Amino acid sequence: MIDYLKGHIVHYETEYVVIDVQNIGYRVFCPNPYAFAKSEEVVTAYIHHHVREDAILLFGFPTREEQKLFRKLIEVSGIGPRVALGILAGGTPDSVVAAIYQENITFLTKLPGIGKKTAQRIILDLKDKLDGIANTPLFVQVDSEQHDLFNPVSTGWHEAKEGLKALGYTDAELDKVWQNLKDGIVPDEPVDSVMKKALRMLYAG
Q1: Which of 95, 117, 131, 204 has the maximum number of C-beta atoms within 10 A of its C-beta?
Q2: Is residue 170 classed as helix, strand or coil in its secondary structure?
Q3: Are 130 and 69 in contact, with CB atoms under 8 Å apart?
Q4: What is the pLDDT of residues 120-177, one digit of tens each?
Q5: Pick from 54, 56, 45, 42: which is nearest to 1 by CA?
Q6: By the 8 A CB rule, do 151 and 123 touch?
Q7: pLDDT exceeding 70 applies to what percent of the chain?
């Protein structure tokens, strides 16, 4: 089984990256493809090697914590790899683990693809199995501005912002762009579309 890949990012899509490892391109599905900086630098993706009857898939993460949490999530009945990716796209390992420990169903149901019954199942199955995966904060504040990322409009921006930061833009530059950009973003707009709009504003100064 593949545990990690180390190589150069040669291609991006909204759901995956292609990593060149010694002239072999591996398609790796990940929560936020833009978390891997597209540069000349070698990147490391921690891999979950998923084998089905009809496919062999690679899911990749920039940290061990995300890799471990992903593996725990797909052990829960009813949660497949795609739903687990959505959870990790919508919340950090720290915030997801904290919500599970605190039985915070409100937080969990804000994550993509998670209803009340699934949230309850996650808590029941994983509450005692997440030691060492994340630094758990004392509480998760669902209604604060930091969780505006669960809004379907700002979810795309949250992912796009990480990709733009990887390209060298600062939080101050990106927050300024967002104020001018947010009214022109539609719910569930693809991340690459949001990035293109933001880049046009950044280039225009």
Answers
A1: 95
A2: coil
A3: yes
A4: 999 999 988 888 786 655 444 544 444 444 444 455 677 777 777 777 778 778 878 8
A5: 56
A6: no
A7: 84
Local structure of residue 30 (DSSP, 8 states) = -
CA triple 144-85-179, angle to 5 deg: 40
Identity of the residue numbered 165:
K
37-72 in b/e burial notation, b at 16+ Cβ within 10 A?
A: bbeeeebbbbbbebeeeeeeebbbbbeebbbbbbeb
CA angle 21/19/48 to nearest 5° reads: 95
Per residue in 63-94, pLDDT (tens digit) is 999 999 999 999 999 899 999 998 998 888 88
Residues 6+ apart with CB under 8 A from 129: 72
Alpha-helical (H) ranges within the chain are 64-73, 81-90, 93-101, 105-108, 116-126, 152-166, 171-181, 191-204
- Structure-token pair, residue 48: 């979950």
